[in-house]
Amino acid sequence: MFGGDNQEKTEAATPRHRQKARQKGQVAKSREIPSVLILMCALAVFSFLGPWMFWKISVAMKMIFQGIGAFDIDTGSLHSVFLDIFQQIAIILTPLMFTVLVAGIAGNILQFGFLLTSKPLSPDLSRLDPIKGIRKLLSLRSLVELVKSLFKVVFIGIVAFLVIRGELAGIPSIVQLDVGGILAFIAKVSFKVCFYTCLALIVLALLDYTYQRWQHEKDLRMTKQEVKDDYKQTEGDPNVKARIRSIQREMARARMMEQVPDADVIVTNPTRLAIALKFDAEVMIAPKVTAKGAGYIAEKIKEIAKENDVPIVENKPLAQALYKTVDLGEFVPIDLYRAVAGVLAYVYKIKGMAGRHKA
Q1: Which residues are registered as beta bridge partners of 313?
Q2: Does pLDDT of 336 surpass 70?
Q3: Which residues, other chains included, contact 17 with Cβ-Cβ below 8 Å and sequence gap of 6+?
Q4: Tens-digit pLDDT profile for residues 126-161
Q5: Sequence-separated contacts (24+) of 37-42 with Cβ below 8 Å
Q6: Which of 190, 296, 319 is CA-nearest to residue 249?
Q7: Residue 55, SS3?
């Protein structure tokens, strides 16, 4: 068996370890998912708002070219024109920028939920270590990322080539079209390329997310000792908890023993069990079990009872029934009233006779 840091990380991460990793920003995430969502949403914006955006650009350009001769730097009209141009550009790009922002945020939330943490941004001097940087650059993970990037470029390139090749037959005919027709043809082909590229990226994003989940689970794995230490920190040291429970039992037992001298009778079976009963008709609705125990505890109860002249009555069936069915501090159940009443009557009779004898 290995010890310390040489232990193999074969155990699944504990909830506490996962939570700590999440607080540090270490979550399973694929950069491909936000990318494909951004591309799809941008494509949707151009598809639905493309004519409007083209119209707004045309209006802005027309305004510029018509007023270009009236520019006067001295009067500040040039500043006003630039401000108008900026406003027009902002109006045109706002739907696109807003959609891209929402898509980027949604792409991350879909993967690991809502998470805000500054840990990845905190200064870490170890990142400046050139040796660690070179090791990271030459690591297996970097090689995997390089292969993924190359595969993505090749895969998307093939998809785009196949789409464009299917449109080659229509290229000669565009020479007969006007400018608007040529632009419409280019827009149609571009949309088609982007659409099939999005489909290809969806497949790549799903594969990459599956890989990132697997890699994340592998990185979170713990050694058996780490699991034990984490359990101790979460639940507390088992040895300490056992000691606390032992102390609590001793304290409860001591409080229970303090009730024995005030009991009216101790019912035994006769050697293994002992149950202390007390009944005060003015304040109690029924006799109450004030102490009980088996073995050593039973012997201590009987010993204290003898020291304080508490009657001890042997009744094996009643002792067993009280020990099994009545918890400490509870009243005797109805089905045991008759048997307990008989014992108490016997005890009161003995006490009465002892009182008369003393008198």
Answers
A1: 267
A2: yes
A3: 220, 222, 226, 230
A4: 666 667 667 666 667 778 778 888 888 888 888 888
A5: 37/103, 37/104, 37/106, 37/107, 38/100, 38/103, 38/104, 38/107, 39/194, 39/197, 39/198, 39/201, 40/103, 40/198, 41/99, 41/100, 41/102, 41/103, 42/96, 42/99, 42/100, 42/103
A6: 296
A7: helix
Q: List, in sequence order, every residue forming a beta bridge with 273; answer none if it has no partner.
A: 294
pLDDT in tens, 187-211: 788 888 888 888 888 888 888 888 8
pLDDT digit string, tens, across residues 42-55: 888 888 888 888 88
Give pLDDT, residue 98.
92
Q: What angle do CA 131, 136, 140 make, to 5 degrees?
A: 135
The mean pLDDT value of the chain amounts to: 80
Q: What is each CA distance from 152 to 84, 110, 202, 233, 306, in whole angstroms?
A: 42, 22, 11, 44, 89
Sign of CA dihedral 224, 227, 233, 237: negative
Across residues 155-169, what is the average pLDDT? 83
Do 262 and 285 touch, CB atoms closer than 8 A? Answer: no
Which amino acid does the sequence have at 305?
A
Nearest to 229 by CA among 220, 238, 217: 238
Burial 297-336 (b: 16+ CB within 10 A, else e): bbebbbebbeeeebbbbebeebbebbbeebebeeebeeeb
DSSP, collapsed to helix, strand or coil, labels residue 268 as: strand
* CA quadruple 247, 248, 251, 252: dihedral sign: negative
